[in-house]
Write a structure and sequence with these properties.
Protein name: Cytochrome C oxidase Cbb3
Strand content: 5-15%
Keywords: Heme, Iron, Metal-binding
Domain Cytochrome c: 443-646
Organism: Methylorubrum podarium
Length: 655
């Protein structure tokens, strides 16, 4: 089908032009680029034959083990082993671009992503106007006025979404469109955040973070931003509602829901404070977004900003993949844990989430005589499982398990439980960043590496991905502490870490086999530090450095941001909030130069929006500047070296 015809088809559906015949139509689509559309088609060779609860087993060792009954048992699914082969990688790539695990229901029917200021028609129109040229930041016309904080987005105004469309494509990267007998929905896939279009070539960079994705603003423009309130600082108790419009809680008393309009306005202001390229994945009732990480993940464990995704298959990478779909794209699943996590009765929590739902079938009306949980059960497309997405449910649900926030494993019917998450891990671990300009010749890069070692960077940034895989206490690293303590409340309800045997079919059989995940000693201490448990104040992982040229701004809060003009374009207010992408070289210089960093921190502190999102750019006070005895030329060489790192820096023996 030619490109213009595809666009016309989307526009027709989005505009409601599919009439009687369309009421019988079902289809879905998400773009997946072929190798010719990629800037980084080359991958690492497949050298690991099995992953056994995070332990890598090379091909030669696997061959020897498979020759004995004991060895075959060690590499069995019953022992938690995942066989890594080309078929698994292919499924992982497909899932990376196309798998939603059903989140289109929450995003469309509950949050109302297509019923707010941005409509399907306007999105289709914006793509059509590209004429096949592609974009790194789709500008979409507002369909109606929406107030977000003290800003009114007017009808007809263009919204910088940060959504990417590859050159020659008619579809948004990382969004899967569903059309089902008159109902249009959109779901998100991993590629929305972890793949990006290169502005120079229009090609897709697999694994690069979408550094200008305006996720917070997109959510603020939805019709029911309240559905994500637990990821922000908006307080329901500050917006008391009509006492006559309440829910019946345990014990029989009636509790009013927060005022719909007032609380919705507060929730919008909070998520809209996120800098572009950030996402708040911690349901801790504090606004504290973190930078979207790259998926250049090989030997980059542990994962997540704090390193809390650190155990289980693929050394925690599968846990990170799972968290997006088992926690962050369906807040209804947190209902049973609402008292522990948020101090809210489950019915009050769910009623708050659903009272503004976009779809009538999921919109809670206190006058209906039903409880919110009864409404959810009646409309749930996944009966028997909590929430709306497709989950394999561990017996420990809703307790936290250090492999998963809540005992849920996002899974696809007809596959093994957690199979798609493991497949995506196998695929991501093969991704290499494209070569970027090093800002100089090979000799300058070599001198930069020498500076890297001389100032002590290699003490933490060592190994093949330039990370020692450690979690550093927040007191030592010195960054803003809110994110480090975001999982503290989960310690109150904690289960031993376990997963299903990796060949367990989904839907689950009556008595599925569980595989315990061993955790003790120093590994347990590191996991507890990453989660802010066992009396610690939490910490942050030592970031791997592969692909730095594609991942500006820097630090966990996105605070170290400098534009092409290093004198005026400082902090998130001078870059991302002004529609200017941070310059990787200038931002890296601010990471190691205390004078430039002080200017960046001051710019962030002067921004009310950055303060609301707890973005400071502080911490990681390890310097390579004149006060540290490093000349300007040596600093330039160091930046050139950091910009040049696009793959693992040394051969990695696989046992």
């Amino acid at each position: 089908m030619a490109w213009p015809l595809r666009v016309v088809l989307i526009s027709a559906i989005a505009g409601g032009a599919v009439l009687a015949a369309g009421s019988l139509v079902r289809f879905s689509h998400a773009p997946m680029p072929d190798d010719g559309e990629l800037l980084n088609p080359e991958r690492y060779p497949l050298r690991t034959a099995y992953d056994v609860l995070g332990r890598r087993v090379g091909q030669e060792v696997a061959q020897r083990l498979n020759a004995t009954p004991e060895g075959r048992a060690a590499l069995s699914a019953a022992n938690g082993a995942v066989a890594i082969n080309d078929a698994l990688v292919r499924r992982g790539r497909e899932a990376f671009y196309r798998e939603t695990f059903g989140n289109e229901v929450f995003l469309s029917d509950v949050m109302g992503m297509l019923d707010g200021g941005l409509t399907p028609y306007e999105v289709a129109r914006a793509i059509l106007l590209l004429g096949g040229g592609g974009t790194t930041n789709l500008k979409v016309r507002m369909a109606r006025d929406v107030t977000v904080g003290d800003r009114v987005w007017k009808t007809g105004e263009l919204v910088p979404t940060g959504l990417d469309v590859a050159r020659g494509s008619a579809f948004i990267l990382g969004i899967r469109t569903f059309y089902d007998r008159g109902r249009l929905r959109m779901g998100i896939t991993c590629a929305l955040c972890h793949a990006a279009v290169d502005p120079a070539s229009g090609k897709v960079v697999e694994g690069a973070p979408n550094t200008d994705l305006n996720a917070g603003l997109l959510m603020a423009l939805a019709s029911n931003t309240t559905a994500y309130f637990m990821h922000g600082s908006a307080d329901p108790s500050a917006h008391p509602g009509d006492p006559a419009r309440g829910v019946t809680v345990e014990g029989g008393s009636k509790v009013p829901l927060p005022d719909r309009a007032g609380f919705e306005a507060a929730a919008k202001a909070e998520v809209a404070s996120w800098p572009a390229g950030s996402f708040d994945s911690s349901a801790d009732r504090e606004t504290n977004p973190t930078s979207i990480p790259s998926s250049f993940s090989a030997y980059g464990e542990p994962y997540s900003w704090s390193g809390r995704a650190g155990i289980g298959p693929f050394k925690g990478l599968s846990a990170l993949n799972n968290n997006v779909h088992a926690a962050n794209s369906d807040t209804t699943q947190q209902t049973q844990a609402a008292m522990t996590l948020f101090g809210l009765d489950p019915e009050v929590y769910l009623g708050t989430v659903l009272q503004g739902a976009a779809a009538p079938a999921l919109r809670y009306d206190p006058d209906s005589g039903r409880r919110p949980t009864e409404l959810l059960r009646a409309a749930d497309p996944t009966p028997g499982a909590p929430g709306l997405n497709s989950y394999a449910v561990l017996p420990s649900f809703p307790a936290t398990n250090y492999m998963t926030d809540n005992g849920l494993l996002a899974s696809v019917p007809g596959e093994a439980a957690n199979y798609a998450n493991n497949a995506m891990s196998a695929f991501q671990n093969l991704l290499r960043a494209p070569q970027a300009s090093a800002g100089g010749d090979d000799e300058r890069v070599r001198r930069g590496r020498a500076v890297f070692e001389r100032v002590g960077c290699a003490g933490c940034h060592s190994g093949p991905a330039l990370s020692n895989h450690r979690v550093v206490p927040v007191e030592e690293i010195g960054t803003q502490p809110s994110r480090a303590r975001s999982t503290v409340r989960m310690e109150a309800r904690l289960a031993p870490p376990a997963i299903f045997a990796t060949d367990t079919p989904f839907p689950l059989p009556p008595d599925p086999k569980l595989v315990p995940i061993p955790l003790a000693g120093e590994e347990l201490k590191q996991v507890q530090l990453a989660w802010g448990h066992a009396g610690t104040k939490g910490g942050y992982k030592v970031q791997n450095l592969v692909g730095l040229a594609w991942s500006a701004p820097y630090l966990h809060d996105s605070g170290v941001a400098v534009g092409p003009n290093a004198e005026r374009q400082l902090g998130v207010s001078g870059t991302l909030d002004a529609g200017i992408l941070p310059d990787p070289a200038n931002s890296l210089r601010a990471l190691v130069d205390r004078g430039l960093r002080a200017n960046v921190v001051a710019a962030n502190a002067a921004s009310q929006k950055a303060r609301m999102a707890r973005v400071t750019g502080e911490g990681h006070a390890y310097w390579a500047d004149t006060e540290a005895g490093i000349s300007a030329e040596e600093q330039t060489a160091l930046v050139a070296y950091l910009m040049s790192i696009n793959q693992l820096t040394e051969p990695v023996p696989v046992p």
